[in-house]
UniProtKB/TrEMBL annotation:
Entry membrane topology: Multi-pass membrane protein
Primary location: membrane
TM spans (from-to): 363-382, 389-409, 415-433, 458-480, 486-510, 555-572, 674-694, 701-721, 727-744, 781-799, 805-831
Protein name, entry field: Multifunctional fusion protein
Matching PROSITE patterns: SSD
Ranges in a coiled coil: none
GO terms of biological process kind: intracellular protein transmembrane transport; protein targeting; protein transport by the Sec complex
One MF annotation (Gene Ontology) recorded for this entry: protein-transporting ATPase activity
Subcellular location(s) per record: Cell inner membrane; Cell membrane
HAMAP family listed in its UniProt record: SecD_B, SecF_B
InterPro entries: SecD, SecD/SecF_arch_bac, SecD/SecF_bac, SecD/SecF_CS, SecD_1st, SecD_SecF_C, SecD_SecF_C_bact, SecDF_P1_head
Keywords noted in UniProt: Cell inner membrane, Cell membrane, Membrane, Protein transport, Translocation, Transmembrane, Transmembrane helix, Transport
Length: 858
């Protein structure tokens, strides 16, 4: 009794924690005002697809970073060699402005006059490039007097890490200075920065800020004493010969402002230097009166005044052809600091606020509709026990919301889809338990004992089926983008929570009902429990038992193989309708009330966008534009970002009432990575499940399950090709969810086959398989129906945002259920029969069987 009480207290505490974590999301404002701020502010954040906003993925140009560092180190090395009279010669392809050559592989090469100087070169390189975490930043290779300098691999990793961290801070400062509401700036991968800006439907200005490094340096004009000279131009095209050596770094700037000059009335940028910079600036201007000092901003000469007197105090003014907004932006960038490396926009996704609010409405409505259908179906099947299961499902959803809130997760539209699918799949554990209890009740067990045995027998199957699904879901989290990761986290939390609510909470509630309602004799308790499991749907399912699923195994397998071959043919031609996630390019959804289709086409073509495809989409004056990846001298990422902005400007000029509902711009670097990671995720999912199934089942069991899932997968891909539904990252999520769902279905049947084989190994294999499939038939059908009930509202009313997930999943559930009944059983029969002909047992002996057999050995 004490044990039960303690366990009940633990369950109550877990549920209360979930309720308290989820509560801030629904509490009215009047109640929130009476509670601590730290509690009320802990709510689920809405993703950009739900509240509207912009998402930019910025890639760091590490090649430029490495080239700059290598050039800096090599210049110091060569300068020191000259000071020590070490003679060297330039390579034939050496550039005139450099003392060495730097090729595309990131190397600096020069040839020594004397081989005896090799050791000296290595010592100098080590002294100049010594680093705290690595022996040296430079790797020196010398072969036949030819010296090759490259950056050390460990140093480059640390350099990129440090540079990206500094870039994140600069980007965050710039965005904060613009007054944006809660911008999110985070690292993504090894060389990218993710910027999310809720509520911003036009990120053009922000893109300009983030696309400018704002690296400002001061250089003296070259004279006869200058050693290394470089040519720089201003915006008017005038060329200046400047010393390559930096006279003063822009990092000394502590403040800047865009103002109107008191003398000329023109926009200028004023700046102030820190104390070290002010001293240096005063000294250099005092020693160079009469010389031209050029201010270079991002490789362009902004101004080049003649120094007529000492400039003390560390204050200066930058003049140029600025407009007042440009002067303000330049000042903002100088205040917040220069980006240590150029950033390129490789992905842009923008959702208008109207589309976001529509997504919330459709997501919530389809979710509520699906949940109500599932709960009603459970009550219709199992009556009181179905009501308990429904209550546990509701607690499950509360726990998921609480966990998402506790972890600071962001709720996206795919996340809502994940919640809906989670509810459909979570029912599976409850159905398994109820079916097991029903079986034990039929055997004559008393009510409480039937519940205990039913839960014990269902537990291993629930763990196996959910663990295999988690393998697929974990890959979604590892390889997916932001919204897909949200989908994966939602399903993972839902599966873990569903095991708790189904196995622990439901059992406690069932035993409570039994003990409070059935206090009579053992026989009457048993009878009442069984009568509660006698709904019309259950009686109908009982009548369906005794089906010979192997009787038409050849026909079933032939149909499956033919459909798979046809699906492969559809994949080849016409092929999948790939979205911009995989093809790259730009997709724009817009509403242009003043433009007809022909007028919009004329506007687009007259502005030079001949490759842009136009499609009428949904309501009148609502259009979908698709632009392929542009190739502009290798600058693919910048070309697509610039194309998107130019296209928007052209349409806005033709119709000033236009609204851009959604923009997806994906560069080739990102799209190529998505394709590779998607294939890798599917392969790892299959491999991971195969390993797990081999560990939990015999090899032929695992092989039968994986082959069936592969057939399901190919048919679903064929469905994409046949229907023309866009194949994007959401579609990949659907395929991985299908793998998890399908294998879940197969594991339940395989587990029952294994159980029956252990009970009667001598029984013919065909009879055992048929008995197992029939005994789990009601569970298979009911689970599929509940999943379909959860998915159908989303598939019908969810809109285009989840079309690539919901519609294929409906198809996949139907295909997966039929393959579980007919194909998995057939393949296992064929593989098992082959095993019998080889004289092998169907199952490996258990530890108890091995121990028993050894005990007979004298």
């Amino acid at each position: 009794m004490a044990r039960f009480s303690f366990r009940g207290v633990v369950y109550v505490l877990i549920v209360m924690l979930g309720l308290l974590s989820a509560a801030p999301n629904i509490l009215p404002q009047s109640v929130k005002q009476q509670l601590p701020t730290w509690y009320t502010t802990s709510t689920l954040s809405l993703g950009l697809d739900l509240q509207g906003g912009s998402h930019l993925l910025l890639a760091a140009d590490t090649n430029a970073l490495f080239a700059k560092q290598l050039n800096s180190f090599s210049s110091d090395v060569l300068s020191e060699l000259r000071s020590q009279n070490v003679r060297y010669t330039r390579t034939p392809h050496s550039l005139s402005s450099k003392a060495s050559s730097e090729d595309s592989a990131g190397r600096v090469v020069f040839t020594l006059r004397s081989a005896d100087d090799a050791r000296k070169v290595k010592d100098i390189a080590y002294q100049i490039s010594a680093q705290p975490n690595t022996a040296s930043a430079l790797d020196v290779a010398i072969k036949q007097n030819t010296v090759t300098l490259t950056l050390d691999e460990l140093y480059t990793e640390e350099l990129v890490k440090d540079t990206l961290n500094r870039s994140v801070e600069v980007v965050r400062k710039r965005l904060n200075e613009t007054g944006l509401t809660e911008p999110s700036v985070t690292l993504q991968g090894k060389d990218a920065i993710l910027v999310q800006m809720p509520g911003m439907s036009d990120p053009t200005q922000v893109k300009k800020l983030l696309g400018t490094t704002a690296q400002m340096t001061f250089h003296w004009a070259a004279n006869s004493q200058s050693e290394q000279v470089m040519n720089k131009q201003d915006v008017a095209g005038n060329t200046y010969q400047l010393e390559q050596k930096v006279a003063l770094e822009g990092e000394h700037i502590t403040d800047a402002a865009g103002v109107l000059s008191s003398e000329t009335g023109q926009p200028v940028v004023t700046f102030r230097l820190d104390s070290a910079g002010a001293k240096q600036f005063a000294t250099m201007t005092r020693d160079n009166i009469g010389r031209v000092l050029a201010i270079v901003l991002d490789d362009k000469v902004v101004t080049a005044p003649v120094i007529n007197s000492v400039i003390p105090g560390g204050r200066g003014e930058i003049t140029g052809n600025f407009t007042l907004p440009e002067a303000g932006n330049t000042a903002l960038m100088l205040r917040t600091g220069a980006l240590p490396v150029p950033l390129t926009i490789i992905e842009e996704r923008t959702v208008g606020p109207d589309l976001g609010s529509d997504a919330i409405q459709t997501g919530v409505q389809s979710g509520v509709a699906g949940a109500l259908l599932v709960l009603a179906f459970m009550v219709a099947i199992y009556g009181r026990w179905g009501a308990i299961a429904s209550f546990a499902l509701c607690i499950n959803m509360v726990l998921v919301f609480g966990a998402l809130t506790l972890f600071g997760a962001t709720l996206t539209l795919p996340g809502i889809a994940g919640l809906i699918l989670t509810m459909g799949m979570a029912v599976d554990a409850n159905i398994l338990i109820n079916e097991r209890i029903r079986e034990e009740s039929k055997k004559g067990r008393p009510a409480a004992r039937a519940i205990d045995v039913g839960f014990d027998k269902a537990f291993a199957t629930i763990v196996d089926s959910n663990f295999t699904t988690l393998i697929a879901v974990s890959l979604l989290f590892m390889f997916g983008s932001g919204p897909i990761k949200g989908f994966a986290i939602t399903i993972a939390l839902g599966l873990v929570s569903s095991v708790f609510t189904a196995v622990a909470l439901t059992k406690v509630l069932m035993l409570k009902v039994v003990k409070s309602k059935h206090r009579n004799t053992r026989d009457r308790t048993q009878q009442r429990l069984y009568l509660r499991f006698s709904s019309p749907l259950l009686r109908l399912s009982d009548k369906l038992s005794g089906i010979d699923f192997l009787a038409k195994r050849k026909i079933a397998l032939a149909i499956s193989v033919v459909l798979t071959v046809l699906s492969i043919g559809l994949f080849a031609k016409p092929g999948l309708h790939y979205g911009v996630d995989f093809t790259g390019g730009t997709m724009i959804e817009l509403t242009a009330p003043a433009l007809s289709t022909d007028e919009l086409r004329n506007v687009i073509e007259s502005n030079g966008f001949d490759q842009v495809a136009i499609q009428e989409y949904g309501n009148e004056h609502h259009y979908l534009l698709r632009a392929p990846v542009l190739d502009s001298n290798g600058e693919l990422e910048n070309s697509n970002a610039k194309q998107t902005d130019a296209l928007k400007r052209a349409i806005s000029q033709a119709d000033d009432t236009v609204s851009f509902d959604k923009i997806d711009m994906v560069g080739p670097k990102v799209s190529g990575g998505f394709a590779e990671l998607s294939i890798l995720a599917l392969l790892i999912a299959g491999g991971g499940m195969l390993v797990y199934l081999w560990a939990r089942f015999e090899a032929h069991f695992a092989t039968a399950a994986l082959l069936t899932v592969l057939l399901d997968l190919t048919k679903t891909v064929g469905f994409f090709a046949l229907t023309g539904i866009e194949f994007n990252l959401t579609a990949v999520a659907a395929l991985l969810a299908l793998i998890g769902y399908s294998i879940n279905d197969k594991v339940v049947v395989l587990d029952r086959i294994r159980e029956l084989l252990r009970l009667d190994p001598a029984k013919p294999l065909a009879n055992t398989i048929n008995e197992a499939v029939n005994s789990t038939l009601s569970r298979t059908v009911f689970t599929s129906v509940t999943t379909l009930l959860a998915l159908l509202p989303m598939a019908i009313f969810g809109g285009d945002a989840v079309e690539s997930f919901a519609v294929p999943m409906v198809f996949a559930v139907v295909v997966g259920t039929s393959s579980t009944l007919f194909i998995t059983s057939t393949l296992l029969y064929l593989l098992g029969s082959r095993r019998e002909r080889q004289g092998k047992a169907q199952l490996k002996p258990t530890a108890e069987e091995i121990k028993a057999s050894l005990s007979h050995i004298p």
